[in-house]
Amino acid sequence: MRFDKIVRGGNVVTPRGTSVTDVGIVGEKIAAIGPDLDGSPGAQIIDASGHHVIPGVLDVHVHLELPFCGTVSSDDYRTGTRAGARGGVTTLIDFAIPYANESLSQAADNWMARAEGKALIDYTFHICITRYNEHKDQIKGMVDRGFTTFKEFMIYESEGWQSDDRALFGTLEKMNEYGTMLLVHAESSRVLDELIERHHTPALMKEHGARLHRMTRPNFIESEAVQRVVTWCEATGGQLYIVHMSTGEATDIVKAAQSRGVPVVAETCAQYLVLDDSVFDREDGHLFACCPQLKKPKDSARLWEGLRDGEVSVISTDTCTFTREQKAMWEGDWTKIPMGMPGLETLLPLTYTHGVLKDRISLEDMCMKLSTNPAKIMGLYPRKGAIEVGSDADLAIIHPDRVHCVDCEIMETNADWSPFEGWDLAGFARTTLSRGDVIVDDYAVVGKEGRGKWLPRTTAGLR
Ligand code: URP
Ligand code: ZN
Ligand code: ZN
Fold first, then answer.
1. Is residue 463 over pLDDT 70?
2. Domain 5-54+392-445 falls in which CATH fold?
3. Which of 257, 327, 353, 398 has the most CB atoms at less than 10 Å from its CB?
4. How far apart are CA 238 and CA 179, in angstroms?
């Protein structure tokens, strides 16, 4: 067989096992996996000796150029996808959110237009249902257009995004009917509103500043909402995916539901695994405001356990970048801090350094949580998510222990700060390949803007 490229002699992680071998690429696809593949005539040889070769990462929870909290998140499809590539991410899934009177289809068009001509890596969208009565009859049309995952938020009334129990229940029924999946941001809005109102006084804001963010979001804000939507999932049989799960209590609820056969899966994000809410005691603590907010070390420990034991299926980022200037909009009132943090560039390095190198999960488990599971759950497997013959040649080549210090000055992410500034992390991509193209070489982005493709889907969920 004649190969266009051969990734030579790396420690290759495949579903059939991990070994030092070669990966042969023809066009956009993986054509062979095996030792000593023949490079003649003229195959480009990419030396991977002394490196791990892993499937390209899928970050399935990303917000680029999102109008939110009175501003627009600062990473767009150019900077966001370059950041992803540098962190070994080869596929991302963003959220298309309808505004004002828009239909689901118009929302998808808007987000497609943001990505086209700018994206360096492949992408698609979860379609957000924000006005159930109007949108419910549009869901099937979106499935026919190639969108098979939908999203509802249990909070964000002021953004116009909130869904009530009726919407959650009805949408889950439709997910069951169409074989599609509903992603849910699960936080308990009414009690949260009450806690925010009680604390929203000049005296408390002066005394506690950004700490009020953690003080008004106790763990039961998440766990009550997870319990409720799991109940609707069990009642309807519709496939449910809990996004950005941050608490030990919610992890226990998901585990118990899964053991009863309820079709629910859960994602956590890297920040909930490696940071905790003591950051709000820092002078710049407001920068870390995100939603749900960071929790306690015991929650992180439970999430790591859930990744090991299986109740947590996916690690993503919830990338929603804001600059220091945008974060400064709060002016002492925590309810006005734009919520979200950069993440795409550091997802793999954080998981590798704090998961694999600290023996919390194996290299193979990491590939499962960052690539294979997200691809399967989101209906992109086997095209994405594994190093297998016939799959897209999406690969990340990482050095086992070479560290880079996180420095926002040299990062691709459009932010003048990083939650991980000064951290030494291994696992940045020395080389990233997307559909056979080298898009990161020697840790620098070399791929062409706009080469990323939209990924239509026909299925979703693990069933
Ligand atoms: O802080 C966050 N997570 N911002 C993005 C919106 C969301 O809830 O995912
Ligand atoms: Zn959310
Ligand atoms: Zn999000």
1. no
2. Urease, subunit C; domain 1 (2.30.40)
3. 398
4. 8
Please state the rounded mean pLDDT for residues 226-237: 98
**CATH 2.30.40.10, the chain: domain bounds:** 5-54+392-445
pLDDT band at 462 (very low <50, low <70, confident <90, very high): low
CATH 3.40.1490.10 matches 60-379: no
Return the number of other C-beta atoms located less than 10 Å from residue 441's C-beta.
16
Whole-number pLDDT of residue 459? 83
Pocket mutation for ligand 1, best pick of 339, 341, 344 (most atoms within 8 Å of C-beta): 339
pLDDT in tens, 253-274: 999 999 999 999 999 999 999 9
Dist. CA 232–CA 220, nearest whole Å: 18
- Strands (E) across 222-360 are located at 239-242, 264-269, 314-316
- Distance (angstroms) between ligand 3 centre and the Cα of 94 equals 9
d(CA 362, CA 21): 19
Considering every ligand atom, which ligand is closest to the CA of 66? 1
What's the predicted TM-score (pTM) here? Answer: 0.98
Query: Which atom of ligand 1 is closest in space to residue 63's alpha carbon?
Result: 5
**Structural element, H or E, at residue 397:** strand 395-398
392 within 8 A of 28, measured Cβ to Cβ: yes
Residue for token pair 């700060």 = 417
In sequence order, what are the beta bridge partners of 25? Answer: 5, 30
| C-alpha to C-alpha distance for 402 and 291, rounded to whole angstroms | 32
Q: Return the best residue to mutate from 318, 330, 336, 337 for the ligand 1 pocket (most ligand atoms within 8 A of CB).
A: 318
Exposure class string for 57-75: b at 16+ Cβ within 10 A, else e: bbbbbbbbbbebbeeebbb
Answer whether 391's CB lies under 8 Å from 384's CB. Answer: yes
Tokens linked to 275: 């940071």
Q: Environment class of residue 146 by beta-carbon count within 10 Å: exposed (0-12), middle (13-18) or buried (19+)? A: middle
